[in-house]
Design brief:
The chain is an alpha/beta fold and 322 residues long. The protein has helices at 15-26, 61-74, 123-128, 137-140, 156-165, 185-193, 291-321, and strands at residues 3-11, 32-34, 48-49, 59-60, 78-80, 84-88, 94-98, 103-111, 115-117, 133-134, 148-152, 171-175, 197-200, 203-209, 219-224, 230-234, 237-240, 244-246, 277-279.
Length: 322
């Protein structure tokens, strides 16, 4: 068992965690990033990235994360391949334990463990991810300009994504397995008032069709939840919008979480319910969920952490002088 110590300990290596590492390293905090179960975060599962600032041409998600990691390492970040299984936030330095027994101690902790989109769990869905099937209309809707698309879901996320897609498509279908939506009434009103959107009620997705075709997704096979009747909807893009799972189970009982299990932070900051612990990226943001906003909150977390340490050191010097 080895103990690794640092001023700034960062959990998670997506855009939020690596941005925090870059700023933390430049501030002389010699951060350690524990990469977790999915090094690089969700962007490593994304192919074309067209909306991250600074790149004229489309870039690949895995390449972008490799560059972020290389930049973080270049300015002094230490990357650790480990999965944290236990945390102790009752005292500083905070203490995290990896599944192999290694211990990580940090004077401040930045949590950037992210969130995962919920999927339907179909084999055909897995085969066509990135080939017509997506879980982020804001990320990928631009690629479906002028094409026929469908959104699967019935909550706020699904309705918001359907409305967003009308910026790119004149033919958007919302597929819902029940006969009423769970979304807020104001969103439902906007949905029903939009002539570009049609709704298929009482339908569940049986299969995404398109495996082996050069164009990817070509249709969605549906089953009526009332009659059992099968049908087929011709589409070129399918967006699964049934929610997200924030990776916060490790912190349940240690930090305040909101009603949707995201880490609660003070408005306008990344400060959590425990002094010296900060959260950034999709683990605390259930509204925007973009790589660029995650990177922005990663910067905020590093600046908040640097300020916290400076104040703590000042108070320690002040007490010693008295």
């Amino acid at each position: 068992m080895t103990t690794h110590t640092t001023k700034m300990l960062i959990l998670g290596s997506g855009p939020a965690g690596l941005s925090a590492a870059i700023y933390g390293a430049r501030a002389g905090m010699e951060p350690i990033v524990v990469q977790g179960i999915q090094p690089g975060g969700q962007l490593t599962t994304t192919t074309d990235v067209e909306n991250y600032p600074g790149f004229r041409e489309v870039v690949q998600g895995p390449w972008l994360m490799q560059e972020m990691q290389a930049q973080a390492e270049h300015v002094g970040t230490r990357m650790m391949w480990d999965t944290i299984v236990e945390v102790d936030l009752t005292r500083r330095p905070f203490r995290l334990t990896g599944d192999g027994g290694d211990v990580y101690e940090g004077d401040v902790l930045v949590i950037a463990t992210g969130a995962q989109a919920k999927w339907l769990g179909l084999d055909s869905e897995e085969l066509l991810k990135g080939k017509g099937v997506s879980a982020c209309a804001t990320c990928d809707g631009f690629f479906y300009r002028g094409k026929k698309v469908a959104v699967i879901g019935g909550g706020n996320t699904a309705v918001e994504e359907a409305l967003y897609l009308t910026n790119h498509s004149d033919d958007v279908t919302l597929i819902h397995r029940r006969d009423t939506l769970r979304a807020e009434k104001i969103l439902q009103a906007r949905l029903h008032a939009n002539e570009k959107i049609s709704v298929l009620w009482n339908k569940e997705v049986v299969r995404f069709v398109g495996e082996g075709t050069p164009e990817g997704l070509v249709a969605i096979e549906l089953k009526d939840t009332v009659t059992g009747e099968l049908s087929r909807l011709e589409v070129e893009g399918g967006f699964v919008a049934i929610g997200h799972h924030p990776a916060t189970e490790l912190f349940r009982g240690h930090l305040a979480l909101d009603d949707d299990s995201y880490i609660a932070v003070e408005t306008g900051s990344t400060r959590t319910s425990v002094a010296g612990v900060f959260a950034c990226g999709d683990v605390m943001d259930k509204v925007y969920r973009q790589a660029v906003t995650a990177a922005g909150t990663g910067c905020m977390a590093a600046l908040d952490a640097e300020r916290f340490l400076a104040e703590a050191e000042f108070e320690a010097v002040k007490e010693a002088a008295e």
